[in-house]
Amino acid sequence: MLHMAQPILVIGANGYVSNHMKSHIRHGYILKNVTYVPFRSFYNPSKPISDCVAKIYNSYDISKYKFVINCVGYTGENNIDDAAKDENIKKLKDLNVELPIHLAEQLPKSDKVFCQMSTGCIYYSYKGNGEYWEETDEPTNKDLELFSRYSLSKYLTEKTLLDIRDKIYIWRIRLPIDDDFYNKKNYLYKICNYKKILSMDNSYTHMQSFINSLSYFLDMKQEYYSDGGCMEYGVYNMTNLGYTNAKNIFNIIMKNSIKLPFSPEFYESYNEFMDNSGVVEHRSNCVLSTNKFQNQVAKIKKHISRCPESVRQEIPTYLRYYDYHNSPSLLHNIDYAINKDLSLKFGSSIVSKAHPYATEFSAKFLNHDLYFGHVTNARSDIMAKYVKKWNKDLLSLPPLPEWQLGTTSSESD
Question: How far is CA 168 from each of CA 112, 153, 218, 236, 411, rounded to the nearest angstrom?
Answer without folding.
Answer: 9, 18, 12, 11, 36
